[in-house]
Amino acid sequence: MFVQRTLRQAVKAHSAFTSSPAAYSAKVLSSRFYSTAVAPLDASKLEINASKNKKPLQENSQLVFGKTFSDNMLTIEWEAGKGWAKPEIKEYGKLHLDPSAVVFHYSFECFEGMKAYKDKNGKTRLFRPDMNMKRFNKSAARIALPNFEDEELIKLIGEFLKVDDRWIPKGRGYSLYLRPTMIGTQESLGVGASNKALIFVIASPVGPYFPSGFNAVNLLATSDKVRAWPGGTGDAKVGGNYAPCIKPQLDANKEGYQQNLWLFGADHQVTEVGTMNCFVFWKNEQGERELVTPDLDGSILPGVTRDSILSLARQWGEFKVSERKFTMADLVKADKEGRIIEMFGAGTACIVCPIKKINFEGKDINIPLDPSDKTSQAGKLTKRINDAIMDIQYGDVEGPKGWSVVV
Amino acid sequence: MFVQRTLRQAVKAHSAFTSSPAAYSAKVLSSRFYSTAVAPLDASKLEINASKNKKPLQENSQLVFGKTFSDNMLTIEWEAGKGWAKPEIKEYGKLHLDPSAVVFHYSFECFEGMKAYKDKNGKTRLFRPDMNMKRFNKSAARIALPNFEDEELIKLIGEFLKVDDRWIPKGRGYSLYLRPTMIGTQESLGVGASNKALIFVIASPVGPYFPSGFNAVNLLATSDKVRAWPGGTGDAKVGGNYAPCIKPQLDANKEGYQQNLWLFGADHQVTEVGTMNCFVFWKNEQGERELVTPDLDGSILPGVTRDSILSLARQWGEFKVSERKFTMADLVKADKEGRIIEMFGAGTACIVCPIKKINFEGKDINIPLDPSDKTSQAGKLTKRINDAIMDIQYGDVEGPKGWSVVV
């Protein structure tokens, strides 16, 4: 009898406190996963209360990433036991949150980065939005935030883009950056699954990452601080992955390097560069031309651009394409033997970002660029990948099925 | 000439974008660290605009951790190049933040947990607030948030406690839980140091963790998910450490365990339990009675309770006290040989939380409690530590200098 009571008592005693929200979480969990009454995310319930205030647009040349936002935003609230409320498009404006909201304390937050492009016919296109939605749901699940119906959020983003259509800048290289974000909004300091959440999508017009030809970056190979680890959250786009990388980045900046090359383990495996996936194109030890990026072992972000580059390169079939680990020792050896062809980071913001130098343990590795190109610092493959992906994003070339989606 | 231009150009090109806020960060950095004009945190500038609305207090028996908050809150804004603004005590209420505020995206957030106690003379006491302030500053620096003057924030918390004095519950085991929090509030999606920040302190009255005698917890030893890693943020109290632990906790709950015992490495080192530090009291392999907790290797939170337990136990001088790594194999062997005396977690919420069972790879390790105690599940040392710390916190016993501070 005593034993039978114990667990229940313990759960009850613990449920109310920071360290042990067992009972509470169990309740949330059961309502979330076992109740059939909770409302799914339903785009058909959208309410549009768009802003009557039309802010002035900026000149394309004045656009700065993530600084200016469109007139409206898309918001959708979620509550445990109830599910997703009516989605709403309303005037862009402040969020009003209790200071006890768990997003401020325990980092219940995840996001996506994607872009809307205007094609030459004036149509609006998204690039592989299904990949973003899949990852968004995966990130949310990793931090016990609710999941949603992928297709419905894509539809809602399409509606949002219709309302704020004038904010999508025209011209190759220009786009409307979209930031779908999910936060936990429970108003209680108990450390457990959040009983409330909010999806919001905001939009910021952006220009090309490299407005006048590529500028290659210098990297500081960093091993004293570690971006991600197996069993951690490196493969999820959660907020907690980002703030800890700023101090090392500032330290790198002070020494004249723009980004960190994140290493892992005693053998200094190359993982990511800044907030981008990392690619090396080299002649490997077997003498084959090979494009390599680290495999998705749980600590690497499954980038949409990363996946697209791998797909395109495999489709081209001109060189070997590998997802596998490689170390700084591999790079140093390849450099000594003159086998590195080029190297770049990859992500939504830049598509590709050429690398020209890596400092590792006080010594520089110089990465080749295209010496025949006097106006732009990038290797030939880097430029080819950039053009190929951009062609598809802007609808100039028909890409693989489902990559460029007219909304 | 080209080479000279390159870095500047690259920095400029990168500064505006998600992946590379080099120039921007350098500007923030220099204004923060090299300008002498920035204002320090100054408690003498406090403005008190306390709420005229006095919310009803709850009965002591009704108190739930982190659910109800006092009438007011303390807030202090910071801006790069300007420093700390006037602190303000004002009515507890919502924070109004732009959806682009970096706290929602990149987890610029850190916090402390501390308590205010009413002693038998009606005076208000804090327990080792200098330790909390030191750690708060260390956490902030780890995620490139600004630092502040420790003593000034302690003074401000003292003023806050005077204004909300009626919210400090009386009685042993009761206290006003304080949650100092710092968030980055920059309104821009660039991934760099936040150019604005906010400290807020909120307060929630709480009762004893174990209202009617200790309830020992069952733990699931967890190695597929990892709480912290060398080079990560395990030794800082940043939000990003918490949300990723909820899913594993829910999984443990489903199997009937209240908490995770977080392991690390191929040799399954014991690190923390739930959100608490972990202690084992055993007869070690040399036959000595020894209290052990993992050493602060960068992945362990430097708990105030942890430090207090070590100090007290060393002062008692009755058994060996060690900060060192130990593994699940060590625990399994000690269990087989009947050498485990007791085991507990330690943290501000509970002081100590006894452990009675650990499931590791499908097998249970039963941890002894005090068999002579029919009303409470805890070992003798666990109970002694709890009483000793509580005696000091409530001013009933004079502790080491600076531990119990009347404000």
UniProtKB/TrEMBL annotation, chains A, B:
Catalytic activity annotation: L-valine + 2-oxoglutarate = 3-methyl-2-oxobutanoate + L-glutamate; L-leucine + 2-oxoglutarate = 4-methyl-2-oxopentanoate + L-glutamate; L-isoleucine + 2-oxoglutarate = (S)-3-methyl-2-oxopentanoate + L-glutamate
Gene Ontology molecular functions: branched-chain-amino-acid transaminase activity
Alphabetical list of Pfam families matching this protein: Aminotran_4
Residue numbers bearing the N6-(pyridoxal phosphate)lysine modification: 237
Cofactor: pyridoxal 5'-phosphate
Taxonomy, superkingdom: Eukaryota
Keyword Transferase: yes
GO biological process: L-leucine biosynthetic process; L-valine biosynthetic process
CDD domains: BCAT_beta_family
EC number assigned by the record: 2.6.1.42
Listed GO CC annotations: mitochondrion
Transmembrane segments: none
The entry's keywords: Amino-acid biosynthesis, Aminotransferase, Branched-chain amino acid biosynthesis, Pyridoxal phosphate, Transferase
Similarity section: Belongs to the class-IV pyridoxal-phosphate-dependent aminotransferase family.
NCBIfam families per record: ilvE_II (TIGR01123), PRK13357.1 (NF009897)
Protein name: Branched-chain-amino-acid aminotransferase
Organism per entry: Mortierella alpina
